[in-house]
Design brief:
Blueprint (H helix, E strand, L loop, with lengths): L2 H37 L4 H24 L9 H29 L7 H21 L7
Helix pairs in contact: 1-2, 2-3, 3-4
Length: about 140
């Protein structure tokens, strides 16, 4: 492995680690909103959608400021729209399909199922953010 490949792999690892830190805070916020709403009697799918929006705002802010701060299109409306779309794909569509399947078919608790879904959504979101939302212009 060449020196440049090692540097690139190290940068990707550091970026993924930072993304993980932001993702953890995002998860705490989104899950807290979700659990509170479910406890208050809100239908679990609706609670997941509402908590999704809390997570998108938190995540975009910190990914923009902390994780992908060297990207040229950071902070733009287009970047925010891309982030919202990527989270919509994973956070609303994929997560709700998985949530429904885990709760209704597998019979996993409404409180535990969102935690299992992270195994799929975290890596998906990282790659969408790295290679689409905050991709530097001119890179493939």
């Amino acid at each position: 492995m060449s020196f440049l490949s090692r540097i690139k792999n190290h940068k990707t690892f550091v970026t993924f680690f930072k993304f993980g830190i932001v993702g953890f805070s995002n998860t705490v916020i989104a899950y807290s909103v979700y659990a509170l709403l479910v406890r208050l009697g809100v239908y679990y799918i609706m609670a997941n959608i509402i908590s999704f929006f809390a997570g998108v705002i938190n995540s975009f802010y910190w990914n923009n400021k902390y994780v992908f701060r060297n990207r040229k299109n950071k902070g733009t409306r287009i970047a925010f729209i891309k982030a919202a779309v990527s989270y919509a794909l994973t956070g609303i569509i994929l997560a709700n399909l998985l949530l429904y399947f885990l709760v209704e078919t597998i019979k996993i608790s409404r409180y535990l199922a969102p935690l299992f879904i992270l195994i799929v959504t975290v890596p998906s979101n990282f790659f969408l953010h790295k290679f689409w939302v905050f991709r530097e212009k001119g890179t493939e």
